[in-house]
Amino acid sequence: MNYSGINIPKKVDENTFSSRKKYKISLIVSEWNNQITSKLLEGAIETLTHNGILNENIFITKVPGSFELIFEAKKKSKESKFDSIIVIGCLIKGDTKHFKYLCKSVSYAIARINLKSLIPVIFCVLMDNNIEQSNERSGGKFGNKGIDAAYTSIKMMELNKS
After folding, report:
1. How many CB atoms lie within 10 A of CB 50?
2. DSSP single-letter state for residue 153
3. Active-site annotation holds for 98
4. Does residue 21 form part of some domain?
5. What is the pLDDT of residues 128-159, one digit of tens each?
6. CATH of the domain at 96
7. Ordered DSSP codes for 84-146
8. What is the number of structural domains in the chain?
9. Which residues pair with 144 in a beta bridge?
């Protein structure tokens, strides 16, 4: 299968699938724009479990907004219990400069956490001009970026373990 350029084989050998049962993943989800982030979360969970990750090894933490993803990702990245973190959020442009500064700050901070972390922190924060674009990227005509983030997480955990 190919999701946004991420190649995950359709048929995975039993040993690879079985080893994924041990992976522990932290999903950190923004409650702001919940109508979008809940669909991204659903896509991520479904993809992870379909690919061998056990439900009991998926840990969900909700934070008020996308900016708060930074703090929680930093905290979780320092815990030795996780093999990957996926941050899920949605920023939609309004009439003020707030959007621009939030997008830049969240992107930069998550990148910095990734540079310091021993585990991958996967970025699944939509930054769209309007709600229609967010809907298209959370289950609409452009797919579900939560699915893409889950596949990226699996690939990065396997790379990190090799």
Report:
1. 10
2. H
3. yes
4. no
5. 999 999 999 999 999 999 999 999 999 999 99
6. 3.40.50.960
7. EEEEEEEEE--SSTHHHHHHHHHHHHHHHHHHH-SS-EEEEEEEESSHHHHHHTEEETTEEHH
8. 1
9. 138
